[in-house]
Amino acid sequence: MPIKKRGTGLTAVADAWQLADIDVTASYPIRPYTAVMAEVAKRIANGLMKCEMVHGEGEHAQFSIAHGASMAGARATTGSSGVGVAYAFETYSPIAGGRCPIQALIADRTLDPPGDFGSEHTECLNLRDNGWIYGWAENAQESLDNSLMFFRIGEDPDIMLPQIVAMDGYFVSHIAQDYEMPDQEQVDKFLPPFKPQFRLDVNNPVIMGPQIEPEMGPPLEWDRNVVMDRVKEKIVAVTEEFGKIFGRKYAPFVEEYMTDDADMVFLLQGAHAVTCRSAIRYLRQAGYKVGMCRLRWFRPFPDTALKAILPKFKVVGVVDTNTSYGAAGGSGVLLVETRASVSEVPGKPLIQGFTSGLGGETITHEEFFKMAEMMKMTLEAGRIIQDAVWVNFNDYLPAVSEVQAAEQQVAQTKE
Amino acid sequence: MATAEMIKTIAQAPDKEYYLPGHRTCAGCGPALAYRLIAKASGKNTIFVGPTGCMYVANTSYACGPWAVPWTHAQITNAGAVGSGIAEAFKMMIKKGKIKDEYPNIICMAGDGGSIDIGLQAASAMMYRGHDVLFVMYDNESYANTGIQTSPMTPYGAATMFTPPGPEIPEAKKFFPKDPMAIFCGGGHPAVKYGATASIAYPVDLMNKVRKGLAQEGPAFLHVQCPCPKGWTFPANRTVEIGRLAVETGMWFMYELEDGVKKWSILPKQLKPVEEYLQTQGRFAHLKPEHVAKLQAWVNARVQTLGLEVPLPPAR
Questions:
Q1: What local confidence, expressed as pLDDT, does residue B316 receive?
Q2: Domains assigned to chain B
Q3: Is B89 within 8 Å of A51 when comparing Cβ atoms?
Q4: Which parts of chain B register pLDDT below 50?
Q5: What is the pLDDT of residues A169-198, one digit of tens each?
Q6: Please, are residues A151 and A163 in contact by the beta-carbon 8 Å criterion?
Q7: Nearest residue of B to residue A62, measured between CA atoms
Q8: Fold of the domain spanning A3-246
């Protein structure tokens, strides 16, 4: 029987790892992801999990240990946050290129400076070009469910790719929530044991990761490229199968909220969707025809889904909780990817970038209201009024320009 | 600890090779010879972890490799960590009954850079945690596959691409090398019960040390000197001879540290002057007498530190 539990995104993933009977996990402390390792360590000590926890000497080692374990044929996991994710950077491409389907939990944390604990998606988005598959969960339940779905997709013989179960630090990783831990029988039905076609086996010797000549590389890279299309197909099939077995139905790529008659939508990923939904309910009462599109996957990026969905709307406000300094559009990574997804689609909407929620700040109702008002102005103008909007810094609301004008006047009188 | 089956003479060494022809290492390559002997000694039930270095680049250049046993690449940074992961995966999968394998010999074959420089952190952590892995440092005293640049093992006075001699720096390399045996087996890594130095010039000794290291439960360390004709600038047919000369001049010492007890594998009756060794290699050709004297003084001090009782050549 599934168990009703109260816990965090991290204990929920520990539950998933327990149910998946992982063999090896590699730890190193950094907040906020650390608690998942503390939880797994406890379960190993109490005999609840049969897993070797190797205490890495850093994140680079963590990912390397998991890589080695995976090549030996083990189901292996690890995780990190913030600068720790950056420290392991060398290892990401070899793991994905070696087609080792390890799973990492990344609970987001701002990169240094300024030494902030809060959630920003930047560290995890930094490794977007390395061939890992990943997406953000918005709560504990989805973290657990994603972990199981990601194992299933990543370990599929047609795929064999490492996965990141991404979640906002603190909002998902540390806030206690109700969720359901599935039954072992359900999981065994959904997730077969990990049996790679090739592993380090003295009776069937293989060579892994040899050097090659330049002309031998592009075919391998082509294969890594096309597998992402296969991942999209698997996502659809696996998400559906998950719903049948566990009774929780997720949109494969993009969750739509109040979009049926919407002429403008927020587009975002992760925990801020929770506040966004309630802000939308208030906005609806005030007459704004606004909805939300929440991305469940970032890699592969759901461009096909967005091509189908976004032309329904007139304005899309992409909310980036990450930084990509100097990026096209002056906002973050989501804006660039979203615009690129629909750039050639007839009837595409105006796509406005917003940067908000940096440093682990909650995006408040008021900030969503502000963004809605700016989107409405864009809608009425029929063009992008101002790119590169950092909410609260350079909003293009009329009130803001009035305040700025007043400030200028005051400054002149001071002279 | 399992008992290692010792090889008495080279004639008794197993015929079966697990490091086969078909690679493209340089003529006279010391590390390739080491690989062949180590693979022979360890046998079929072996997995090699090969971090970036000559023995990765020159062995696997065409998407294939010369090993008849499983081999995997690791980054130059992380042989110890990848080896740790493989070791614990096998332990846990065997324990859970997920696989029927016998626990394999896991050997990290790392160059000097991958062991004691950029790979030091991972190697140290592997040894600290006590994984059942043999860490072999094949030491050709430079970053060789990138075209011979200085590493912490490059001797004082050696010319490399990053340490060319010139009027301002006449001795070329200015620093003296690290001492890996002291670092890994000198008490700082208590889980390491067996460590040894070895040389490709003494193949039987090398093979036996591999077997002893593998028989050890937990981590073991082997530091193998592997002369490099290209990097050290000597003719390709003199690799073994130069390996011997290193031992005879005190530029290399052959000993084991088992449970903290030192045992000399080769005790020279007296040391030849270091100059005899330097003369054989182009990398030292620029050295002036004062630099040679400095190296001799270093050798003599090493003899004292290691507690070797042997007549010493004078340090002028």
A1: 62
A2: 10-306 (3.40.50.970)
A3: no
A4: none
A5: 999 999 999 999 999 999 999 999 999 999
A6: yes
A7: B81
A8: Rossmann fold (3.40.50)
